[in-house]
Amino acid sequence: SAPGRFADYFVICGLDTETGLEPDELSGENFEQTPLRRTFKSKVLARYPENVEWNPFDQDAVGMLCMPKGLAFKTQADFREPQFHSFIITREDGSRTFGFSLTFFEEVTSKQICSAMQTLYHMHNAEYDILHTPPTNDKDSCSSTGDCNGTSVSKLQRFNSYDISRDTLYVSKCICLITPMSFMKACKKVLEQLHQAVTSPQPPPLPLESYIYNILYEVPLPPAGRSLKFSGVYGPIICQRPSTSELPLFDFPVKEVFELLGVENVIQLFTCALLEFQILLYSQ
């Protein structure tokens, strides 16, 4: 039986430099996109512990749900703020496990990956020239559009471009907690503080491994109806578990639902739920 720990796994997903850049077919690969706008396969790079008896690790599910759009590449000119999201894995017996992921961007230090991205751009630009250069005997179309060796083509080629000699390449990476209960706010703070420790010029008071060990082995689930306060890397973290006589745990901000769907749609969804209609939410 589960020993009642706050978290079962700490997971890292990202770029496997040994396998290199693999197109991610599941996310709808579009080779007409510039290479920086394509998606590539991400992999589970590390997890700790290796496995727990009461919650077997599903590598495929965790890898896909941690980075559902695969790897993303950016340069120094792009927006690179960390993004947080959560997910649920429901097993055949109806039991659930919860995942909380923080995705951020780090500089690519592998020369092979940078060279591969540069090669993809050379191929993309060559294909673009072939597809968009008018026939040589069509002089009128050249002069009218201005695309024959003109500025329009070169501007499109430079859009979202990557030049290994002048640009810094960044790739997405994800750190994740797999937990038995959905303490979203606490997990978000844990991951944000770990990320802050990695990116801060000043190292944290203790090695990062000690904080990860603490969250996995020394922080228990709070008893029903009680609160729990434990230490993060840079400050205390608090979570609260409702008692058996209260509504079930729901640690997500309701405000975001109204911001995303609007008041009318939320009322319509609530009405459908009360009338036991089937509800399908479709999104990118």
Automatic annotation (TrEMBL):
What is the originating organism of this protein?
Answer: Dromas ardeola
- Domain of life here? Eukaryota
Q: Which residues form the UDENN domain?
A: 24-284
Example GO biological process = retrograde transport, endosome to Golgi
Q: Which SMART domains match?
A: DENN (SM00799), uDENN (SM00800)
What the entry lists under PROSITE patterns is as follows:
DENN
Q: Name one GO cellular component term.
A: trans-Golgi network
Please give the name of this protein: DEN5A protein
Matching entries from InterPro entries are given as: cDENN_dom, DEN5A/B, DENN_C, Tripartite_DENN, uDENN_dom
Gene Ontology molecular functions? guanyl-nucleotide exchange factor activity; small GTPase binding
* UniProt keywords, alphabetically: Guanine-nucleotide releasing factor
